[in-house]
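Entry for the shared binder. Reason: the reviewer on the internal report wants the predicted structure included alongside the sequence.
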Amino acid sequence: MIVIQANPNFDVLATDSRRRGFNDFLAALEAETIAFGRPVVLVHGDSHYMRIDKPMLGSRSGRRLEDFTRVETFGENDNHWLHVTVAPANPNVFVFDQRIVPANVIEH
């Protein structure tokens, strides 16, 4: 599990200015994830849109890296948290459980 602050902008092209500064990091992360051959999780905040997904595409294959998972945390207006369990017997290794803080829930 790797934890960083900024959103590395997986959803934009490498030539997009929002990816500037992340291209080398993402290339190294891809190479290390492939070499590791087991589940890797990147946790980040920044845009604070809580999501758990598989956004990394292999630069050679153009297909999703199944062993890579991105977790973007709650934050800003959504002050809740995420419980993570490391479960070695689970093939995914990491198990995520959203924890909604009742005091922070608003009427819609």
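Summary line for the report: The chain has one domain: 2-104.
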